[in-house]
Amino acid sequence: MECAVMGSWGYGIFENDDVLDWKAELLETKGLDFIEATLDNVIKADYIEADLSSNGLGAIEIVAALQGKPGVEIRNKNIYVEGLDGWIKLYAGQGEGLIEAAKIAVKRIKTDSELKELWEDSDEFAEWLKVVRELEGRLSTI
Question: Which residues does 25 contact at the CB level (< 8 Å), separation at least 6?
């Protein structure tokens, strides 16, 4: 699939270059500090640039997965999430203190981010928004 958003090949959380770089960095970390820092950066940014938005969505997805609510990419062991399974198992059940930050971050990305603007200018905006709303929905059940 050719995607209108630069560096993306799909509208899934892990279907872009930025979040895959972020994921590689995450897999080198211990504990949840890297995720917390990413969420803080999203929440505190005056303007959430596309790369931070993508990284934020990755962090939010991990927070949900740690609480037993993984998205379809993780459940289906999509090739782009390779390596995350073991990391998530190692920290499963942790991160409850990050849930509220994740909820705030996903709302900001969904409504006021460069990534949202880029997707709005594409033919795939509805699909991207559906993915983000699904993630937001999983968070609301935690």
Answer: 34
